[in-house]
Design goal:
- There is one protein chain.
- It is built from 18 helices and 37 strands.
- By secondary structure, the chain is α+β, with helices and mostly antiparallel strands.
- A hairpin with a 2-residue loop joins strand 9 and strand 10.
- The model has no long low-confidence stretch (mean pLDDT 97).
- Bound molecules: flavin-adenine dinucleotide.
- The site of flavin-adenine dinucleotide has 41 residues, from helix 1, strand 12, strand 16 and helix 8.
Length: 816
């Protein structure tokens, strides 16, 4: 009976690669009894079988680092548990830097990784030579050793996970292709397969490079694209043994390791090639794909310079296999935003083996508890946008995405491919004004403005970049006169209907039962009290609100609201993002400028802070919100797209008399960090509560129907002093720059790390935020009584901590 094809299952996992196997395994560990895994051909026949099996832990984000760490530990114990070997070898790994800048980047990354318990130390080129005698190290500027890293045999790992899953009661069916996803009333109800239908409460899409296609069957967006991915294996070479550490050599876009007495070289070339653009062949099973070694030869030659003995030995295998990559080189995991109980874990960007264990563990908890056990935003499927499901976009972006992990990760680095997806109607005017554009959620946004004669292009560096002074001038203009920020990219939703107030009041921490025209700053929480969104809601009418959020949170915020509209509620969400531009006027002269344009006094009494009104500028009428993210007097102007050009022209024309300056997003960031305004995704996220983040003032504890997360917050409040609290820091030395993810030391002991940072031009030094942590409770005395240092590379810089904003702590400038 166990092998009879089921008609029902609690959960169906689609795909028998390392990810599907790991999720099935971990679900059984959490006590799930009715787990069915379906594989269209044979287990591990997709991408998993041909992976190089590297287990390296230095990753870009905390989430990915933690996943990799968990994975290593799991693979170490799997054989003892299942009897199936994984081929794990604890050979360690070495990262090489060929330039001073890369060395600096790695020092920062390694310091950060140590915060998460990843053991590593800097070693000399001579050390590398003695650990890897065949390597050529004369151009090595710095190297870092990770003694706990290693490698596995990926097929064996998948087998061990499947065996463990079977031991836990999961049923596995090969030669079973999912051909449809069943849904009813916004919820998944099962799958159709070429062997029959299975009703299921949950469906998990782990179909690797097929995941976009499988998701489409469910109307879900999973933007990924397969690319060619290469390694080669030499003939046997004397002196090559299996305990040689893995050499990661980003300067040559390559990694090098031993393989049965031979040398394997794998590539993350900076210009990659999408594969399967007309669809993946139906018969694909344990296949390699047509290689293009002419294209790869320059990279092969460079990599061989690192291990020159390869030039004297033949190549036994040139291998090219496909792997799924994503537009931002991060995984796509978690619940679908628009289909309940449909989960995805795909787009592993050639990191699926080294993070597979962790991905399975996190997904199993996510499915079971509805929330992940750690902050997964950087890999959350809900950061993807509907417009990304575009063939040409995915193909063009993937040319750059594949190799990005091995490139220099400069601060403020911008993507260069697949740009120009979304442009505001002001784009050309802003370009003429000197805008240097960056990309966010597909939008081209001015990050800074070049001076006449200066090129509007980034010159990347770890020190002051070429736009540092531009930022300083824009920053001062807003503090002293007035600046205009073009923020059309902001997502705007109308939430309307008789029940709009009731729905939003349940979702938001703040009380939205306010008079018409009132703006409310609020958070949306999850059931654990973690912050899922941080935004403003403006009451436009008895039955209508305007919800405004940053573009990168568009899908997530929309899904959060929609998911909480009861079936019988009279409440409709409309995305009006494209219908309105937004110009944000900030600075002490903003009132005088608007007064000139509108002919109205706009005094505090007439137009108080936190309220909205219609204003008329020329023939155009627009919605103005008196609010700030810069810490100054200012108004956000929401202008119908058709009205935007004349309004902008009038602003610029009149602005000449008031010192109006175009300002970019970098300036908005430097301004808001000085004022300690939090940014969701950096300073606050699903694992941080408003109490910890100092945002409890938004919580309307007495709202009649409460709000999601309230009970969790009350429990946290009653549990005694908070164990972590968000604090602002400023460096004592005006020279060093902070970016985020720098370790924070309290009284000489590592305490935590910065969550966001930038140069504070008014405070005259780098400013950051970060959580201070203490198991006994982080009291005011604990914060004030500490001696702080922030580590940049290997150097610690004294810093001052403050609970109140260091700039204008009483907000006197905002409410003038
Ligand atoms: C050359 C190369 C080297 C690599 N080296 C490394 C490395 O060193 N370290 C590392 O971490 N990663 C590495 N990777 C990446 C790694 O192999 C992948 O990230 C990982 O295997 C992805 O696993 P997966 O389960 O998501 O996908 P897959 O292994 O492809 O599994 C997906 C499965 O879904 C099945 N499927 C698809 N559609 C359906 C359907 N409709 N119904 C039922 N089943 C379906 C497929 O048949 C497939 O078996 C490498 C990849 C390549 C190409």
């Amino acid at each position: 009976m166990a092998n009879a094809f089921p008609t029902n299952a609690r959960v169906v996992v689609i795909g028998g690669g390392v990810i599907g196997s790991s999720i099935a395994y971990h679900l059984t560990k959490l006590g799930w009894k009715d787990v069915v895994l379906l594989e269209r051909k044979q287990l591990s026949c997709g991408t998993t079988w041909h992976a190089a099996g590297l287990l390296t832990t230095l990753r870009d984000t905390e989430a990915q680092t933690r996943l990799a760490r968990y994975t290593q530990d799991l693979y170490r114990r799997l054989e003892a548990e299942t009897g199936q070997a994984t081929g794990i070898l604890n050979c360690g790994s070495i990262q090489l830097a060929m330039t001073d800048d890369k060395a600096h980047e790695m020092r920062r990354g390694c310091a950060m990784a140590r915060c998460f318990g990843v053991e590593n130390r800097e070693i000399s080129a001579a050390d590398v030579q003695s650990m890897w005698p065949l390597a050529e190290v004369s151009n090595v500027k710095a190297a870092f050793h990770f003694p706990r890293d290693g490698r596995v045999n990926p097929t064996d790992v998948a087998q061990a996970l499947v065996k463990g899953a079977r031991m836990g009661g999961a049923r596995i069916f090969e030669q079973t292709k999912v051909i449809g996803i069943e849904r009813r009333k916004g919820r998944v109800t099962g799958v159709r397969t070429d062997r029959g239908d299975i009703q299921a409460e949950y469906v998990v899409n782990c179909a690797g490079m097929w995941a976009r296609e499988v998701a489409r069957m469910a109307g879900v967006n999973v933007p990924l694209q397969a690319c060619e991915h290469y390694y080669l294996i030499s003939e046997p070479i004397d002196g090559v043994h299996n305990m040689l550490p893995i050499l990661r050599d980003p300067g040559n876009a390559a990694y090098i390791r031993e393989e049965a007495g031979k040398i394997m070289v794998g590539f993350f070339e900076p210009i990659a090639k999408p594969w399967g653009i007309d669809g993946i062949p139906e018969e694909f099973c344990f296949n390699d794909i047509q290689a293009d070694w002419d294209r790869m030869m320059p990279y092969v030659e460079r990599a061989m310079q690192r291990v020159p003995c390869l030039l004297d030995h033949g190549i036994k295998l040139f291998f090219c296999g496909p792997e799924a990559f994503t537009p931002d080189h991060n995984y796509l995991m978690g619940p679908a935003p628009n289909l309940q109980n449909f989960f995805v874990a795909a787009g592993m960007n050639s990191l699926g083996i080294l993070s597979g264990g962790g991905v399975g563990m996190v997904m199993a908890h996510w499915i079971t508890e509805g929330l992940p056990p750690m902050d997964m935003w950087s890999v959350d499927l809900r950061r993807a946008h509907a417009w990304q499901d575009n063939d040409r976009y995915l193909q063009d972006r993937m040319v750059e995405s594949l190799g990005i992990g091995y490139q220099d990760h400069w601060p403020y680095r911008q993507w260069t491919r697949a740009r120009g997806v979304k442009k505001s109607i002001l784009h050309d005017r802003l370009a003429a004004a000197g805008a240097c554009f960056g990309e966010s959620a597909g939008w081209e946004r001015p990050n800074w403005y070049a001076r006449p004669g200066q090129k509007a292009e980034y010159e990347y560096a770890w020190g002051r970049q070429n736009w540092f002074e531009n930022n300083a001038e824009e920053h001062r203009a807003v503090r002293e006169q007035v600046g205009v920020f073009e923020q059309t990219s902001f997502s705007k939703f109308l939430v309307q209907g008789r029940d709009a107030e009731r729905v939003l009041n349940r979702v938001a921490t703040a009380n939205l039962s306010v008079p018409t025209d009132k703006i409310v700053y609020t958070q949306f929480l999850n059931e654990r009290g973690g912050i899922e969104a941080d935004l403003t809601v403006t009451r436009l009418a008895d039955d209508g609100y305007l919800v405004v959020t940053a573009a990168f949170t568009h899908t997530h915020v929309e899904a959060l609201i929609r998911a909480r509209i009861p079936n019988d509620a009279h409440c409709v969400v409309t995305d009006v993002s494209g219908a309105y531009s937004m110009l944000n006027l900030q600075g002490p002269s903003s009132r005088a400028l608007l007064r000139r344009l509108t002919g109205r006094a706009l005094s505090n009494e007439e137009f108080p802070f936190g309220s909205s009104q219609q204003l008329q500028i020329g023939y155009q009428t627009l919605l103005a919100l008196r609010i700030t993210y810069a810490g100054e007097l200012g108004w956000e102007l929401y202008i119908s797209t058709a009205f935007t050009l004349p309004v902008y022209d009038a602003l610029v024309e009149a602005g000449r008399d008031f010192g109006l300056r175009h300002c970019g997003y970098h300036t908005l960031n430097s301004l808001r960090i000085e004022k300690a305004y939090r940014e969701w995704g950096h300073d606050i996220g699903p694992l941080d509560t408003p109490l910890e983040a100092g945002l409890a003032f938004t919580c309307a504890w007495q709202k009649p129907e409460g709000f999601i997360g309230r009970e969790a917050l009350l429990r946290q409040r009653e549990a005694g002093p908070l164990k972590r609290r968000l604090v602002q820091f400023v460096l004592e030395d005006p020279e060093p720059l902070l970016y985020h993810n720098e370790p924070i030391y309290r009284d000489g002991v590592l305490n935590s790390y910065t969550t966001s940072a930038m140069y504070g031009h008014s405070l005259g030094a780098a400013v950051a935020m970060g959580y201070l942590v203490d198991e006994r409770g982080v009291s005011d005395d604990f914060i004030i009584g500490g001696r702080y240092e922030i580590e940049i590379g290997n150097t610690r810089h004294p810093a001052r901590a403050s609970l109140a904003p260091l700039y204008d702590p009483k907000s006197t400038r905002v409410r003038v």
